[in-house]
Amino acid sequence: MSNQDQQPPWGKKRKPQTPEEVVAQLINKLQDFFSDNKKPPPPGDGEDQPSRPSSPFANIGKILAIVVVVLVLQGVYSSFFKIMPSEVGVILRLGEYSRTTPPGLHFKIPYIDHLYKVDVENIRKEEFGFRSHSPGQQAVFDRRGYDMESLMLTADKNVINVAWIVQYRVADPYAYLFKVANVRQAIRDISESVTRRIVGNMDFDYVLSNRDLLAASVKAELQVELDGLFPKNLSGVSIGTVQFQDINPPDPVKPAFNEVNEADQDMKRLVNEAQETYNRVIPKADGDAKKIVEEAYGYKAERINNAKGETQRFLDILKEYKLTPDVTRKRMYLETMKLILPGVEKIYVIDKDQQSPLPLLNLTGASSLPATQSK
């Protein structure tokens, strides 16, 4: 590498290229600034002159100058701030609320404006009757030592063990920060009070079988209590979800409760089986009854239509008979014989002038044709 590349041109100072060089130059300048050693005088000039002591106020002025520079740099650095996407910034100017800043890069007056960052997207939760721990990927629930939170008395004077979760988020950052001293404790106290009141107005069986309705009631009344206790929701929170994790009787009465529960399950099973039989038999009987009724209606319609048809046929024949009696009578005779003769095995033809019947030869066994005697 040439010497021209290593050194800057004449009349120009080489600028530091790395942060390490900047820090090294700053340290050297501070050392030179506070150093009491002066540059040696030129040879032959004042070697015999006594040195004058430095003034103590000169160092104080230097220190004040350094302090002012540091304060100015710190003020410039702190005047710009960044708000993350899930946060908002609350600015107080001389202790009084000034504005709320959305996510992004913003400016504030140094040493006058004070910034508080509040996460408004994060869902906070309070646990009652248990505590969850996550030592690994799987959460662990610990219920030991939290009976004072979970044990409640129902309307029918039974003791029940209730564990639930209240989830909420920040709705008003300024109210959340400055209107209530301890929002978390206020939510815990009000939630426990509301849950105990609602459970105390319900029977034991109703609490066990209506968990969703119980959670919805607690959520609605909890939000009403927060809005009523702190006008215009000065608590600054909005209740998101109330979920009951576990509702069980206390351990000493669990065996008796399990027996009652088994009996209730057996009763429900028998009722379901009876309902299943009812649903299978009754619709089939209804279908059969409807089938019989419809068949009766069909038979009725058939008989009526046949009767009408025979009546119309008789009227038509009567009309033809009146026009041509002989022809009609003969045609009716032939049609009747056509219907009767195929079903007759033996036919006897007797002459109307014959006084006694003629002996006939029995040819039934000799021939499949019926024995006939014609005139």
Word description of this protein:
- With about 375 residues, this protein is an alpha+beta fold.
- Among the domains are: about 80-120, no CATH class; about 125-250, Band 7 domain (Tetrahydropterin Synthase, Chain A); about 250-335, no CATH class.
- It is about 50% helix and about 20% strand.
- It contains ten helices and eleven strands.
- The chain has helices at about 5, 20-35, 55-80, 145-150, 175-180, 185-200, 205-210, 210-230, 255-325, 325-340, and strands at about 80-85, 85-95, 95-100, 105, 115-120, 125-130, 130-135, 140, 150-155, 160-170, 235-250.
- Strands 6, 9, 10 and 11 form a four-stranded antiparallel beta sheet that branches. The chain has a three-stranded antiparallel beta sheet with strand order 3-2-5. A two-stranded antiparallel ribbon has the order 1-4.
- Helix 6 crosses helix 8 (about 210-230).
- The radius of gyration is 56 Å and the shape is elongated.
Unreliable stretches, pLDDT < 50, 5 or more residues? 1-6, 8-12, 366-375
Tally the helices.
10
3D shape: elongated
CATH superfamily membership of the domain at 124-249, which one?
Band 7 domain
Radius of gyration: 56 Å
CATH architecture of the domain at 124-249: 2-Layer Sandwich
* CATH C-level label of the domain at 124-249: Alpha Beta
Largest sheet: 4 strands, antiparallel
- What percent strand? 15-25%
Structural class by helix and strand composition = alpha+beta
The total strand number stands at: 11
Mean pLDDT: 79
Percent helix range: 40-55%
Q: At the third CATH level, what is the topology name of the domain at 124-249?
A: Tetrahydropterin Synthase, Chain A
- Could you give the order of the helices and strands? HHHEEEEEEEEHEEHHHHEHH
- Could you give the distance between the termini? 154 Å
